[in-house]
Amino acid sequence: AYRTDEGQPWVLPVVKKVEQLIANDNSLNHEYLPILGLPEFRANASRIALGDDSPAIKENRMGSVQSLGGTGALRIGAEFLRRWYNGNNNTATPVYVSAPSWENHNSVFMDAGFKDIRTYHYWDAAKRGLDLQGLLNDMENAPESSIFILHACAHNPTGTDPSPEQWKQIAAVMKRRSLFPFFDSAYQGFASGSLDKDAWAVRYFVSEGFELFCAQSFSKNFGLYNERVGNLTVVGKDADNVQRVLSQMEKIVRTTWSNPPSQGARIVATTLSSPQLFEEWKGNVKTMADRVLLMRSELRSRLEALGTPGTWNHITEQIGMFSFTGLNPKQVEYMVKEKHIYLMASGRINMCGLTTKNLDYVAKSIHEAVTKIQ
Amino acid sequence: SSWWSHVEMGPPDPILGVTEAFKRDTNSKKMNLGVGAYRDDNGKPYVLNCVRKAEAMIASKKMDKEYLPIGGLADFTRASAELALGENSEVIKSGRYVTVQGISGTGSLRIGANFLQRFFKASRDVYLPKPSWGNHTPIFRDAGLQLQAYRYYDPKTCSLDFSGAMDDISKIPEKSIILLHACAHNPTGVDPRQEQWKDSRDTLSSLYWRKRNLLVYFDMAYQGFASGDINRDAWAVRHFIEQGINIVLSQSFAKNMGLYGERAGAFTVICKDAEEAKRVESQLKILIRPMYSNPPVNGARIASMILNTPDLRKEWLVEVKGMADRIISMRNQLVSNLKKEGSSHNWQHITDQIGMFCFTGLKPEQVERLIKEFSVYMTKDGRISVAGVSSGNVGYLAHAIHQVTK
User: Fold this and answer.
1) What is the reported pLDDT for B81?
2) Complex ipTM, two decimals?
3) pTM for the whole structure
4) From CA B263, how far away is CA B260, in angstroms rounded?
């Protein structure tokens, strides 16, 4: 979760304002939402992902399912795919998850009933970047109709995203091999500070005519973690197909949670549908993204000034909440035990944990770990 | 071509269909008796005062929005368990239970169903009363279990088919899962009497089930809302536990706190001891994480504030009794109005039944006439939501029912 420079959680100012508006609105009650969710939320949430001028919206061939966070959106999508994709109930359809990825991806698809979950090459530890060739090879060799879980931006846990050129290559292979793109978009706006930039990959795939799913989370970019605000955007060939897909997703939702929680969806819908509040929100998002970007550049410059062995440009080239530092498990152990700096054995650090007050200490500690431990 | 060309259009939701048709109707006297949510005497949704107060208190605390634990808000789950089991329950004192927050009743039922599918290896069969809430069947089926039924409702008397239930339950194989509605059976409103639960000679008795080694799954969606008394409505649940049956339980706060869209619920497993409870809890979390990671805070915070703040809790008990009393009053008025209309039928089941719903005994043809000629909307099975009845329209309803049944 995001932390301020004081190391505190941050409730976005626009969220506080909107919650007050909601609290003062006596016309509101706690009645059930429709099964697929609050209509104003669904339409606005998908619009944020696809862009106002999206062909999918113009051609009325997209649909949305309000979900319990990004996880819930992934699960509804996975349950639908298991029942209706690549034949009926084809649990043998391979599902590809990046190596590494968020651990819950595996569990979501497994619990949805898929029997063949594989990894695709992604992180190149040696060069500390994207293993594009490995990724493309895996796609070339994947059985047709395989499902690929793609991180829309700010890859978790590596922070390493394909460039637009690289995305184009990925899309070309996926189209040729008839692979299904399932995007996980948990950091739109939070990664670069720009909603449009962070949605570039999803929108490119839509413009290339793909049918796809995009699981969106508003946990980070709205700071609404515990309200469980998510949305599954469905893009299809035409309105009729999308309508039938949504009708079946509705059945899945009904036996999972019946209808989604209203508070978080109301906050997001109110914010996105008011031009003024929307601008305010974008400002709040940029505040968070900018702080993380600042911590990245400050950490990198300190390491370079200290002459810490190795190259550190990956700290600023990576994006989002997480960074794969390149520290090995022994070096990580040193950081934890000797310096009381907590990071994952993979060398992943949460950039949100950095503050102006601890930057020097963290940089010096990394320097020590790298020079003392091999 | 599309990946989805072969995807069938899902069937329209029958209850939704009732509301859609109601909305289109221009008759000023129209009544929507399909609605599964409480309405006040003006036919409006009712936000409880204690809920408003709890919301104001929560807002003033300026809490953050950090993720809840996977198992939910601890103050909420503890209070939910105490509400269901009673504060002095030996189960609570010994800690031999686990309660996780669920997405209202549905989500709690589903967690339980998934848990049983994964860990209750003795059987795949879940026995539901006939009829049961429409969503029970697809929930258990999607979780990977099989559905069976035991006789429950007698359409001839509009009450409990006592001998039928006894007969069917006696034949349920050992170690099957049996689902019971704790109170205010949905959709019939027909509950067994306390003597029927207790009598050790008959198959509804908890002692009988302990001997038969059946896993008892209670669905309690109306505690307090049924009789107006939270302890009375939880009687069956507590009785079974006292008789030594380690039940599993799903709770909803949608109706009794009016928190419908906030999705506040809980799933509880009574265990052998606290150590077993810890193991069960760890597995429940493993099930929840790939479903939605962790539950929504708002409804749970409101419910927790109410249950754990003495003044608010007192106020809630009064308000929930108020809702139950209005429903009971509407039942009484409907029957007396039917008598006034000159109906010669026996309508006693309307006041014998309890909770939000009433199985009127009306046949599909009669229901259709009610809809077409009187703009009174209900589901084809003759089920009405008494919550949709008010002092302003109960006379009209009685008149309409009399016209189609005389």
Assistant:
1) 98
2) 0.96
3) 0.96
4) 6
